[in-house]
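Key result, reporting period 2: structure in, sequence out.
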């Protein structure tokens, strides 16, 4: 493949994982040509590790590099909106870590900017990829699963004072939110990816584990558009870390593995209602081709979309759906009322969910 896209990575915390999991496995598709980070020690360490010579501390220099095709934004959440808008205005393709931006108003502004931009924007939701979740997706999409009944989503992780010693964490202005934004957003995306859109949410948030500004515990009751009921719980105070989805359908029970950071990979529990349903599932998955986890598959599909002009694997509409859930969560917790979807400009927290 000759159409190699040159990438500049901005922020080398999670950005390093983008290199190792996303770009290096596809050396025939991507070249990481530049790194940008305010931390010079980290900049040089990652540059030396992967032999990347172009190392910058000024984002404007990256924007002015004519050979860069893709800007991959891995900075703290509070900076995402400005960097995305500048990168799109510069004609670059953009990859951006979660959370994409800090309000529905901001994501709607990004969607508007995309319509006239030369480049394309792909938000990161790498947990969608792996054999487990993709098998579940195929079973549900085929109709074999039947009517959806209920679902549960549990993001039970642990984060303490050492984690929040990083200056930008735990603060509304820089992290934009707590467990809902930075941790459980992945599993909540997986929930809607498999169960479809949300119709209504009643939620509560609390700060119970750490001395921080943002929430570290959350729970909610959801009504899905397809009529199914779902519950969400998330905490950063669980001494055993798990990420778990459990989905009950008319004809099958589906449960993810419990790996906190790779819930999309096998093994997933698939329990058919009877032998006939089991045979249909076996036939559906008989010639399964392995799907690499996380960034590996998402970056491969992104390149395919750029070359073909086809649909992106993850879209800004997907990111909006995730932020819609977050907005509803904060609004419901404050008002003690159910929030109905879609959530638009009339919502109290459309422009910002941060406390005034």
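The corresponding designed sequence is given below.
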């Amino acid at each position: 493949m000759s159409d190699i896209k040159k990438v500049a990575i901005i922020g080398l915390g999670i950005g390093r994982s983008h290199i190792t999991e996303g770009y290096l496995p596809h050396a025939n598709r991507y070249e990481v040509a530049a790194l940008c980070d305010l931390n010079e020690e980290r900049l040089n360490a990652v540059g030396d590790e992967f032999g990347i010579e172009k190392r910058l501390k000024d984002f404007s220099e990256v924007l002015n590099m004519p050979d860069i095709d893709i800007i991959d934004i891995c900075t703290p959440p509070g900076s995402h909106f400005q960097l995305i808008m500048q990168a799109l205005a510069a004609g670059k393709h953009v990859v951006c870590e979660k959370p994409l931006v800090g309000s529905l108003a901001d994501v709607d502004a990004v969607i508007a900017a995309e319509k006239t931009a030369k480049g394309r924007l792909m938000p990161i939701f790498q947990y969608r990829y792996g054999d487990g979740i993709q098998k579940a997706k195929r079973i549900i999409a085929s109709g074999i699963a039947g009517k959806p009944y209920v679902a549960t989503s549990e993001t039970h992780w642990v984060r303490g004072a050492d984690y929040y010693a990083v200056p930008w964490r735990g603060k509304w202005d820089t992290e934009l939110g707590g467990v809902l934004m930075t941790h459980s957003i992945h599993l909540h995306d997986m929930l809607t990816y498999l169960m479809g859109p949300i119709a209504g949410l009643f939620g509560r948030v609390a700060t119970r584990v750490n001395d921080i500004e943002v929430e570290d515990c959350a729970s909610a009751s959801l009504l899905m558009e397809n009529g199914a009921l779902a519950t969400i719980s998330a905490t950063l105070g669980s001494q055993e870390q798990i990420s778990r989805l459990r989905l009950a359908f008319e004809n099958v029970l589906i449960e993810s593995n419990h790996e906190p950071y790779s819930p999309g990979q096998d093994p997933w529990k698939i329990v058919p209602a009877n032998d006939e349903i089991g045979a249909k599932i076996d036939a559906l998955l008989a010639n399964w081709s392995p799907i690499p986890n996380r960034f590996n598959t998402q970056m491969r599909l992104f390149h395919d979309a750029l070359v073909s002009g086809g649909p992106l694997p993850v879209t800004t509409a997907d990111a909006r759906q995730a932020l819609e859930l977050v907005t509803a969560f904060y609004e419901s917790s404050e008002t003690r009322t159910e929030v109905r979807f879609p959530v638009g400009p009339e919502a109290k927290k459309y422009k910002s969910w941060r406390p005034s």
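The domain at 5-126+297-313 is CATH 3.40.50.720 (Rossmann fold). The chain has two domains: 5-126+297-313, 128-292. This case is discussed further under Risks and Mitigation.
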